[in-house]
Structures
1.
Amino acid sequence: MLQQLPQGYTAVVTGAGGGIGRAIVTALKADTRAGRILAVSRQALQAEKAATDDDRLRALRADLTTAEGRGILANDLAGAPVHLLFNTIGILHDATLTPEKRLEDLDAETLAASFHVNAITPMLVIQALQASLKGRHPAIIASLSARVGSIEDNGFGGWYGYRASKAAHNMLLRTAAIELARYNPQAIVLCLHPGTTDTKLSEPFQARVPEGKLFTPAFVAERLLAVMGERGPAESGTFWDWAGKPIPW
Ligand SMILES: NC(=O)c1ccc[n+]([C@@H]2O[C@H](COP(=O)([O-])OP(=O)(O)OC[C@H]3O[C@@H](n4cnc5c(N)ncnc54)[C@H](OP(=O)(O)O)[C@@H]3O)[C@@H](O)[C@H]2O)c1
């Protein structure tokens, strides 16, 4: 897996306390070629315990939606090369945020919160890690988007903030891909759709998911790493689903 990356590669996983984030960390731990795995979360991770039995894994507690949190991560890395940045941070709902069904539900604060977590944060994490991503080393920057963020694919409407913030995420990542190609010819920036996955994020909406279409986080992690493993720098700035099919913007 991830054969583009060197033996002993360094991986950073953000949102490592989330359903997919935890599964990505577990999958990377199973890769003997991974040399260093930094699991970043706002929570005290179970990974902190797991770290005692695998000294390649370290948990870092930081809220990357804040400049302070991103500073903690950048200081921790101190410009050391990062070969894999896997961002899983994203929000669809929380105690105060409900996906909008109709125009009446739109609210400036809620929209701004979605944009902040789903689009601005992943981009500013890349900015904070610039020193670790620039150079001549292979570097995959993968960030979880969602198919509903595809403008072309939007046939159903609804979920204004989530859709629009994921579309903005995709534009920011695509733009970063163009710039990063100048700083690191081996950089591969990818937007990924995991498919509907059994996590807290999808929980309130799982009743509508057709039989066999609700994936386990472990399955999704394995699929996404396989899809990433098939990409090269010429495909930087593209959008893929879990099955390895490209998604239109
Ligand atoms: N599950 C699905 O069906 C599905 C489908 C399409 C796309 N996605 C995308 O996949 C990604 C991972 O989702 P998931 O299913 O694993 O959901 P999840 O279990 O809710 O995990 C998302 C993680 O994002 C971070 N996060 C969420 N809200 C935050 C906030 N306000 N401030 C800071 N960090 C916040 C948290 O990381 P920490 O707790 O570690 O801080 C959280 O655990 C998201 O970007 C989501 O949009 C999921």
2.
Amino acid sequence: MTRTLIALAGLTMALSACGQPADTAPAEPNAAAPVDTASTAGAADTATSPDAAPRSGSGVGVVTAVDAAAGAVTIDHEAIPAVGWPAMTMSFKASPAVVQQAAVGDRVQFDLEVQGNAGEITAIRPE
Ligand SMILES: [Cu+2]
């Protein structure tokens, strides 16, 4: 029982790591910054909202699962510095066209778009 809970907690942490990249801007606005209502409103919103503008990048990894019905592809991917992610295994949303090009065991290169916690593969090709 306890082991199951620990395993689940570890999995949750691994999955949520994508949403909390360590090398992005600090979440708290700089308290020492001069007050400028015209510009700080927008800046604070961008820094704190998980739904900020989508980021994109490309990664390399091995497909470990394909779920055509759910439109999802799981990839054991290497680090993706463009979006601040370490190496991990995670599930990505994928269009039917992308799902069709992915097979378990394939080593692939893929383009992705990240918004908040969710990543979507926009293109995939053999590596
Ligand atoms: Cu990831």
3.
Amino acid sequence: MHRDFREETEHGAEPAVTEAVKKRSMMEVELTVNGVPRRLLVDPFESLLYTLRERLNLTGTKEGCDQGTCGACTVLLDGVPVLSCLTPVARCSNRRVTTIEGVAKNGELHPVQKHMVETGGIQCGFCTPGMVMTAVAFLRENPQPDRREIREAISGNLCRCTGYAKIVEAISKAAEEMQS
Ligand code: FES
Ligand code: FES
């Protein structure tokens, strides 16, 4: 669903008028996505999630609740995790966005990704991209976390499948590997 940050009018607008207004209000944004500079024409009221999935075809970032509660849409903005469903793309101009597609390097999975696979921290996989993005940023800030800190760090990312134990284990193992 395309999240639009404009107030909706009670009666809506004539379709032709809406189209004309939309065209007029498109804006250009420049942002760097996974290290690649992008210049895009966007609706200033669309979410970063919409831009990534619908304009850039980066569908690794998942749309869950679209309301800021599940964490499935987490990406990094200038290295900091944000909920892309609640982030207007207009605020991302001249900033760096990292999505799950940009985490592996030279064909090698990031340790968090690798251990999520190896420990069984992935079942349906829907929460995984957001979970990984949160964990990657968290381990940069806290390279030697204990399990409680890991649980706290991923508390905004909901998983309906795994019960979290395997996910926490995966992040813990990734932290160990990154220290060695
Ligand atoms: S889709 Fe963004 S928090 Fe759920
Ligand atoms: S693995 Fe299915 S929601 Fe987390």
